[in-house]
């Protein structure tokens, strides 16, 4: 199955972010390879899988606020304030590593290490904070899942 590591641009109000990312700021996450946005499909219930969808700067399901959990490391919980849900890696589920949204629990499943790929272009990758060999990856069907290929676009 074809997949691409999820390199994405952080955008705020259709502009590239000045910092990568800044705690408390809200971003739209745009997949570099496809131009599609990280979304919950505008669904507000937990256990909804994350996917790529047509970028829409007005869609509440594409607004993600980064909350830093460590003062000295780029580790964040990614929160959608519109639906009061966070992105979760679901590592203990029937489909481990397939991203979904869940209530905030501060568990390791909800902490992402943000790795800068290209600071000038505001491009980053999201890694599993507990295992930096796992990166959020866009699958052929548009779903988002942890994979171990950090070199893909």
Mind explaining what this structure looks like?
This protein has 153 residues and is mainly beta. It contains no helices and 14 strands. The chain has strands at 3-5, 7-12, 15-16, 26-31, 37-39, 51-53, 64-68, 75-80, 85-88, 100-102, 112-118, 123-128, 131-139, 144-147. The protein is globular.
> Based on helices, strands and strand pairing, what is the structural class?
mainly beta
Gyration radius, rounded: 14 Å
Number of strands: 14
Strand content: 35-45%
Outline, from the CA principal axes? globular
State the helicity in percent bands.
Answer: under 10%
What sequence of helices (H) and strands (E) makes up the elements? EEEEEEEEEEEEEE
Average pLDDT, rounded to a whole number, is 86
**Sequence of strands across the biggest β-sheet:** 2-4-7-8-11-12
> Could you tell me how far the N terminus lies from the C terminus, measured between alpha carbons in angstroms?
15 Å
Spans of at least 5 consecutive residues with low confidence? 12-18
Count of DSSP helices?
0
Biggest beta sheet attributes: 6 strands, antiparallel, barrel
Short structural description:
This protein has strands at residues 3-5, 7-12, 15-16, 26-31, 37-39, 51-53, 64-68, 75-80, 85-88, 100-102, 112-118, 123-128, 131-139, 144-147. By secondary structure, the chain is mostly beta strands.
């Amino acid at each position: 199955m074809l997949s691409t590591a999820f390199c994405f641009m952080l955008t705020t109000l259709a502009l590239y972010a000045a910092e990568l990312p800044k705690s408390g700021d809200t971003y739209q996450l745009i997949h570099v390879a496809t131009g599609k946005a990280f979304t919950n499909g505008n669904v507000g219930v937990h256990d909804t899988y994350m996917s790529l969808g047509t970028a829409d700067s007005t869609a509440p399901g594409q607004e993600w606020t980064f909350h830093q959990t460590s003062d000295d490391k780029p580790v964040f919980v990614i929160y959608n304030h519109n639906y009061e849900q966070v992105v979760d890696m679901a590592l203990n589920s029937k489909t481990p590593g397939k991203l979904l949204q869940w209530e905030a629990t501060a568990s390791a499943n909800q902490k992402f290490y943000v790795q800068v790929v290209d600071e000038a272009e505001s491009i980053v990758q999201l890694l599993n904070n507990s295992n930096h060999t796992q990166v959020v990856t866009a699958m052929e069907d548009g779903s988002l899942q942890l994979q171990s290929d950090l070199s893909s676009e």
